[in-house]
Write a structure and sequence with these properties.
The structure is a homodimer of 370-residue chains.
Chain A: H1 25-29, H2 44-55, H3 63-86, E1 91-96, E2 101-109, E3 114-129, H4 130-136, E4 149-163, E5 170-181, E6 187-199, H5 205-220, H6 226-237, E7 239-240, E8 245-246, E9 250-257, H7 264-289, H8 296-316, H9 318-324, H10 331-334, E10 341-343, H11 355-364
Antiparallel strand pairs in A: 1-2, 2-3, 3-4, 4-5, 5-6, 6-9, 7-8
């Protein structure tokens, strides 16, 4: 199929499950320029803009505005901490969507600590066609099936950090909120998704334990079932199925959390704690690994593991493939998740009993760290 | 979806078009161990083995055996020429399939000329379930719709060469034959697919013209419409749609060529000429580029282009994704096509009017080279 024969509308009727496709939704939609349906009533983007101008964002603002404020606040804080650690500044690209929303892409490349680091937020206002609504109803019964289209809103923060030092793990985080709006601007269906996971090249048990423990503590404050359920979900999702290996040593992952799970305020608080937990879960690890000694062999192993990271993101990640298959997507924001460099070596096998071999055995059979 | 919940049968009912999925078919099926249906009559694998033992392979042998002989002969010849050029030997892995067929994977890694080179043949005997037959009938009316399963045969040669020198282009070739068998061992439906395409990092018009001209001459001997049709098919297929760029400067690509196109002997002769044309189309180019001077900047640009090669193969190539999603596939044979090293740099843009920029403009709007 040629590029020009791709559908010019957004492929909402993508047959893959909706799970995780929202991660890159906002980046993908940046340049599509699809217009919200013109109706008598103001769009939710117009309503939200007016509200922001008139009264700012408070705890009684619509969840859309509160989520936008939350992710931007955490983006700022995380970027500031990472800049302090690395000693170099992020490049900041701000972009607007013509009909409401936009994004802030922050990338630090070839820093002192980080080979490549991206911390992105994005906010999208758009319109869901009938077919997409029908499909999403499978997971969200609140969606009104009797309308031709619905305005929607999506906002999320995505972060991937690839350090130089092979002893220091790559980390990924994403939290996102999605809602559809009734014609009077009130929320129709809504849900949250996200998580955070660690991908080491060399396994330090104390790092794995610290990472999982910090996240579990944040989960436990909200629901004791969250950590065990979302830890398993993470191992299942971030898996290079073709190699029978997980991408890394996990963390948590969840999607489609709506009123069937908890009320919206409770889930918003949980997502807030997930974002809040990022720095304490990762900073102590990067601090103690960033200056460790390593040689050529360790660097090569890291490059091979980077190759596996690329395989997962390009072959299996539904958000990435959804984004890349959406005409007019902001490809550079989506692919900021890829490492600066990667390597594929035919039939590479670590020596039995080596540190590299031990990592592989854990990736082939995920471990309960706590 | 977890690894263990993948279907244990082969996903023949994959919803993507069949086009190009046969490229990695044989590698993917290596370890699945699916059994041909046990019937009174001998399987085609058993018949073919007997025939080979009794009378060797001649021009009156079944096409299956002639195709197998053809690809192995060309593999041997191409590997020998590449070893002479590089000065290093390929690593040769031979594998058998329990119920007939097998493969020869030849890989040369970190040679003097080639960073990574793979020349693979594979032969598969297996059984197509009813659903797969129904799907394939869309392209091949000869397929009997009234059977529960059909024995099939697939054989092909795949080749990818990534040279060290950024001035020397990557080249890819694949030719394959597919048939289904009636219960008496005679051919039911059959078709050919394949092609050959060039991916330079720096564009030398004389190389592009030589490559296309050599291939066009081979095509013209068989049908004057082949080159223009298959050149266009190649540009359309090998396209990083998400970037609006072709992978390289093309060549030819075709699939599903059956009796609706030409008779089988004529197509076999065409594919034989395609294989024969490989060395004269590529060797003069690698000869004149392999020792050209280059610096750090050229090497970095090559690494970025390698990244695009990875993007195409992992995101868009239907054969690769079909292979990787087939449980038990020989992943290392499928991914030998990936470069040894690759790079992703956020928002890289070559200077206007530079050599790098000129390549991009050709990839964005494919050129008629002859």
């Amino acid at each position: 199929m040629s590029y020009s024969s791709l559908p010019s509308s957004i492929p909402w009727y993508d047959p893959t499950p909706v799970e995780n496709t929202v991660e890159h939704l906002s980046e993908s939609l940046q340049a599509t320029g699809e217009e919200p349906q013109k109706t008598e009533a103001p769009t939710i983007a117009e309503r939200d803009n007016l509200l922001k101008r008139e009264s700012g964002i408070t705890s009684s603002s619509p969840m859309r505005l509160r989520m936008e404020a939350l992710i931007k606040e955490h983006q700022k804080k995380i970027v500031a901490e990472l800049e302090k650690l690395d000693g170099n500044k992020f490049k900041v690209d701000t972009w607007d969507r013509p009909n409401g929303g936009g994004g802030i892409t922050c990338v630090l490349q070839e820093g002192d600590i980080f080979e490549k680091a991206g911390v992105n937020t994005s906010v999208v206002y758009g319109t869901l066609p009938r077919a997409a609504i029908a499909r999403m109803r499978a997971n969200h019964k609140a969606l009104d099936p009797d309308v031709d289209s619905l305005e929607f809103f999506a906002a999320g923060l995505s972060l991937v950090l690839h350090p130089h030092n092979p002893m220091a793990p790559t980390v990924h985080l994403n939290y996102r909120y999605f809602e559809t709006a009734n014609s009077d601007g009130t929320s129709n269906a809504w849900w949250y998704g996200g998580g955070c996971d660690l991908t080491p090249c060399y396994l330090f048990d104390e790092d794995a334990i610290h990472f999982h423990k910090t996240i579990k503590e944040a989960c436990d404050k909200h629901d004791k079932t969250y950590y065990p359920r979302f830890k398993k979900w993470c191992d299942n999702y971030f898996s290079n199925k073709h190699r029978g290996e997980t991408r890394g040593i996990g963390g948590i992952f969840f999607d489609d959390l709506d009123e069937a799970e908890k009320d919206r305020e409770q889930l918003f608080a949980f997502v807030g704690d997930g974002l809040e937990t990022f720095l304490p879960s990762y900073m102590p690890i990067i601090q103690r690994r960033k200056d460790m000694q390593y040689g050529e062999q360790e660097k090569q192993w890291q490059q091979l593991r980077r190759g596996r990271y690329v395989e997962f993101n390009l072959v299996h990640d539904r958000g990435t493939s959804f984004g890349l298959n959406t005409p007019g997507s902001r490809v550079e924001s989506i692919l900021m998740s890829l490492p600066l460099t990667a390597r594929w070596q035919y039939m590479h096998e670590p020596a039995k009993g080596s540190k590299e071999d031990r990592l592989l055995s854990v990736l082939k059979a995920p471990v309960d760290w706590i």
